[in-house]
Amino acid sequence: MFDELVRRPGVLEEARVRSNVAFLALHGGSLERGTAEIATAAADRAGASLYAIRQPEDMRWHIPSHLADLDALPKLRAVLEHADVVVSLHGYGRPDLRDTLLLGGGNRELAATLATRLRQALPAWPVVDDLEAIPVRLRGVHPDNPVNRSRRGGVQVELPPRIRDGECDDEREALIDTLASVRSGAA
Known about the structure:
The structure is a single chain. By secondary structure, this protein is an alpha/beta fold. Helix content is 30%, strand content 21%. The chain starts with a helix and ends in a 7-residue tail after the last helix.
């Protein structure tokens, strides 16, 4: 399904293979606004690898991440095969978790380390890294989810709208700097 998406007019697929840390944004553009920009900025600051899909304004096609077929997405496969760890950026909107950052994914040690750093950098923003406290659909623990398909797995970072949409520029910059601090030797 993702292969159909990336072939659609106006959809941009970007991949850069650099370090063994990779940032992903599978639902960028109009679907989960700001995620591709945050992933790109963090990857650039860290000299890290990147894979991002950006949908045009007139498209909002959500394909669950675990349906990404690496055989049909050679650019994503190249990034994941090069990566030791992955940080995958996603967006969500729920009134009950308005300003909360959720850290799922299979690398729980890295999630805990990143949660500690985010709490320090963004003290006014709740950060949840306890999987039991994260809504099931936002946990990012499916084994086929690209965040879990590098050598050491990764962290799925679910971001609420305010930190993604430019409403909180200072906090967004602190988020990007903190994400960029992830190194493969971390956790």
